[in-house]
Request: fold
Amino acid sequence: MGVGFMYDWIADYPLSSYPGTVRIDGIAAMRDAMRKGTQDDPIYIVEIAPTPNLAEALLQEPSLAALSRVIAMSGSTHIGYDLRPPISREYNVF
Reply:
C-alpha cells in the first residue's frame, strides 16, 4: 500500500477517533452500495473527481451499471480553465 499526497495532513489522525465505518477496500464498499439499487430505484452517484474507483467497480461487476445512475460529472470540451483557451480536458472527459 502506497502513501498518498495527503499523508502528511492525515498521518497523526487516530483512526480509532473516526465516528464512521472504516472500510479497507473502497471499491468493494462502492460495489456493496451500488447493489442496494434496483432498476426502478437506482443508486445515484455524484462523481466530482477522477473516477477510477467507479471504473474498477464496474469492471469487476458490470451488472451494477443497471442499478445506478451517474448524475453529475464535471468537465468541458469547449473552453479551458479560468474560461480561457486552450481547451483543458477534465480528467474524466479525457
In short: The CA atoms of residues 31 and 60 lie 9 Å apart. Strands lie at 43-47, 68-73. Residues 25-94 form one domain. The longest helix spans residues 26-34.
